[in-house]
Amino acid sequence: MTIEFTVLGEPHAQMRHKTFKRGTFTGAYDPSADIKKNFLLTVQNHAPREPITDPIMLTVVFYFGRPKNHYRTGKNSAMLRDDCPEWHTSRKDIDNLQKLIFDALNGIFWKDDAQICWVEAQKKY
Q: Dihedral through CA 93, CA 99, CA 105, CA 106, nearest 10?
């Protein structure tokens, strides 16, 4: 089975869980919870009827918007400079980008993200 879809917008990375203390009560929360919920709402119409229980191969390409300095100036301002990079090598870390997807789709697309055996991921402009 192959499931393929595109999600428009800037990629988001999984943020570290936060802990807090109020008096004697200590709690924790996931600051990425709303982002994961919105991502799942966007892709839920591609979900299989039942979560996949087989080993999973996942291919993900994260596309980032290009900064202004990748473009030429003046009348050629819509054209890319010859020396602009193809690969996005700055923050957000690829493992955190993947983790947000793994967690958001867990239990809906697949039974558990431990089933993901092969991941091919890229960060590009």
A: 180
Q: What is the largest CA-CA distance in the chain?
A: 63
Mean pLDDT (whole number) for 74-80: 94
pTM: 0.85
Strand 25-29 and strand 18-22: the pairing is antiparallel
Helices assigned H by DSSP within the chain: 33-43, 94-105
Specify the amino acid at residue 111.
K
Distance CA 13, CA 100 (A): 6
- The percent of residues in the chain predicted with pLDDT above 90, rounded, is 88
In this structure, what are the phi and psi dihedrals at residue 116, rounded to the nearest 5 degrees? Answer: -75, 110
**Residue in the structure block whose two tokens are 């919920």:** 37
pLDDT tens for 6-33 read 999 999 999 998 888 888 999 998 999 9
